[in-house]
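Lab meeting, item 3. Inverse folding demo.
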């Protein structure tokens, strides 16, 4: 389902079923310990430029539900691929070719949403706070608003993130997420103390289905960022050192030939 790939000095994971979608560029960067903080960002920028993108954007992520149309940001920085923060938010949506989104992830779920027929997309950053706030609902609503894409037409790829066995939280987090016990989607077990284990991707998959996305159109990455800390960065494994170093990206190139 997924392939580890290298493009020059940029290394990433790609979701194979989307590899043949004309013009679509997407993936999650891999860990490169020798390069330091933000290690893959300049290489990602160079790769997107080589693919014919006019500009790329990332947000100051705040674990909320704000989803921004990248078309509104074009030219805002005055320089292509600087990838500086433009404004606060946790999702980007695109309906025009040549503009890409970049989202930071380190255990939180990078949610890729494709409206294949409309050639539109959304890329969301979904930690537990964003899920509770409704970032998935906001992303799908923006796609419907901007591209007329109904949930039944969407495909979702839930990228590399911390798995349920590794993600331990307090009871209050489970309450915020609506997880009440084994019968609830997202429940992954209890800890010896009073902790709960939550599978964020299972929870997102269930919520996507409740919003009308077909179960067959939702895919979950096999990779856990903490279990595979040799390949990915993980806040739970590395604390602050794992932040700002792993990147999800998505967009349609300006020309279909540059896939």
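The presenter then showed the designed sequence:
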């Amino acid at each position: 389902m997924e392939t580890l790939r290298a493009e020059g000095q940029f290394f990433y994971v790609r979701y194979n079923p989307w590899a043949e979608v004309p013009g679509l560029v997407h993936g999650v960067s891999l860990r490169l310990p020798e390069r330091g903080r933000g290690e893959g960002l300049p290489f990602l920028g160079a790769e997107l430029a080589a693919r014919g993108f006019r500009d790329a954007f990332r947000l100051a992520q705040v674990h909320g539900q704000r989803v921004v149309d990248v078309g509104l940001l074009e030219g805002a920085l005055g320089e292509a691929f600087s990838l500086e923060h433009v404004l606060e938010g946790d999702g980007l949506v695109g309906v025009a070719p040549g503009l890409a989104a970049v989202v930071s992830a380190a255990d939180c779920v990078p949610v890729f949403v494709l409206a294949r027929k409309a050639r539109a997309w959304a890329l969301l950053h979904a930690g537990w706070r964003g899920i509770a706030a409704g970032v998935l609902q906001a992303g799908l609503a923006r796609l419907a608003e901007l591209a007329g894409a109904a949930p039944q037409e969407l495909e979702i790829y839930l990228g590399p993130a911390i798995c349920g066995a590794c993600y331990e939280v307090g009871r209050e987090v489970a309450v915020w997420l609506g997880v009440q016990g084994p019968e609830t989607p997202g429940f992954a077990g209890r800890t010896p103390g009073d902790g709960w284990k939550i599978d964020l991707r299972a929870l997102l998959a269930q919520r996507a289905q409740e919003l009308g996305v077909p179960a067959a159109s939702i895919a979950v990455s096999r990779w856990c960022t903490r279990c595979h800390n040799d390949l990915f960065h993980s806040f739970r494994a590395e604390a602050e050192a794992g932040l700002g170093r792993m990147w999800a990206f998505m967009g349609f190139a300006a020309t279909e030939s540059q896939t």
